[in-house]
Specification:
Structural class: mainly beta
Number of helices: 6
CATH superfamily of one domain: Single-stranded right-handed beta-helix, Pectin lyase-like
CATH class of one domain: Mainly Beta
Shape: globular
Distance between the termini: 42 Å
CATH architecture of one domain: 3 Solenoid
Helix content: 10-25%
Strand order of the largest sheet: 2-1-3-6-9-12-15-17-19-22-23-24
Radius of gyration: 21 Å
Oligomer: single chain
Largest sheet: 12 strands, parallel
Length: 325
């Protein structure tokens, strides 16, 4: 009993301690300040550590930050705060591609390894263009939230690779496989823009036991005017790829088939591609590939964010996102 009371006493002495730091291009790069930084990476390297359950808030001033940023695993509960009303005014950008970086998985502008990462009002960009794989952000973070954010690239824009992730009120653009990886990710009230005759997703679930996959819901898919062909909602990067598109507006440029095999002539056996209650000129299910699925209302409920991302700890991503500015 005495040991238990001691633990309670120590816990009271060490409450959750948040840390706030500020980043601005106008800050002195030679300064030794631990709260004012000229680059985001310097903030990640030198900001004070938080309390045991505290959060690091990185307040980012308007500007273009031409740098590569790594949020390492020893920076849990980090939040990038930009401008929710004008995320285009805060841009983190680089231009590495797979060839220049030594591989796709080294090309990212921003890499997030820390759990419970949040970002609000920030643009993540890779400006390498049509030069092959070029990642804007790689997210390997459980309980990650992105709100009022923009993700700009061409091929492999957003590497949603690990953990439970929630994207809301955001914008994603690319051309080829530009949302890819094996996270359990929900894209809710998001605009996804296809630039070419490509593929929105390349999900990489590797087994039926994995609780991973992508859910696009209450969103809008837009497209460039495509000549000589259409684009697809996805193709399976791995055998058990899972993507669900529901309650979403689909454009006329979407192929009537909806989905594509990874290689021409393949017939996916274990891939789970499904739709429910979509609208817009591309939503007709006539012509969909026979290995795709149409969900019932009851089946679609399992893919709502509050259930699909719930996990054993009963995480509510929508409630958590509502606490961001």
């Amino acid at each position: 009993m005495r040991q238990f009371l001691l633990i309670l006493f120590l816990t009271h002495l060490c409450p959750a301690q948040d840390v706030h730091v500020h980043v601005s291009p106008s800050n002195d790069p030679s300064s030794n300040s631990t709260t004012e930084f000229s680059t985001i990476q310097r903030a990640m390297d030198h900001a004070p550590q938080t309390g045991p359950a505290g959060r690091l808030y990185v307040h980012i001033a308007p500007g273009t930050y031409s740098e590569r940023v790594i949020v390492t695993a020893n920076r849990p509960r980090t939040t990038f705060l930009g401008d929710p009303l004008a995320p285009s005014s805060i841009v983190i950008t680089a231009a590495q591609n797979a060839k220049s970086a030594g591989g796709t998985f080294f090309s990212e502008t921003v890499e997030v390894e820390a759990p419970e990462f949040n970002a609000d009002g920030v643009t993540f960009a890779n400006t390498a263009g049509a030069t092959g794989q070029a990642v804007a952000i790689a997210v390997r973070s459980d309980k990650a939230i992105f709100k009022h954010c923009r993700f700009l690239g061409y091929q492999d824009t957003l590497f949603a690779d690990f953990g439970r992730q929630y994207y809301t009120e955001s914008y994603i653009t690319g051309g080829v496989d530009f949302i890819f990886g094996n996270a359990a990710a929900v894209f809710d009230h998001v605009t996804i823009h296809e630039q070419i005759r490509g593929y929105l997703t390349a999900q990489s679930r590797t087994g039926p036991q994995q609780a991973t996959g992508y859910v696009i819901t209450r969103s809008t898919v837009t497209s460039e005017a495509l000549e000589g062909g259409n684009f697809y909602l996805g193709r399976p990067w791995r055998e058990y790829a899972r993507v669900i598109v529901m309650n979403t507006i689909l454009p006329v440029e979407l192929s009537p088939q909806g989905w594509s095999p990874w290689s021409k002539g393949d017939i996916p056996v274990h891939t789970f591609y499904a739709e429910y209650n979509n609208g817009g000129p591309g939503s007709s299910i006539t012509g969909r590939v026979p290995w795709s699925h149409q969900l019932s209302k009851q089946e679609a409920q399992h893919f709502e964010a509050t259930e699909f991302l719930r996990g054993f700890d009963h995480w509510n991503p929508m409630a958590a996102a509502a606490k961001l500015p």
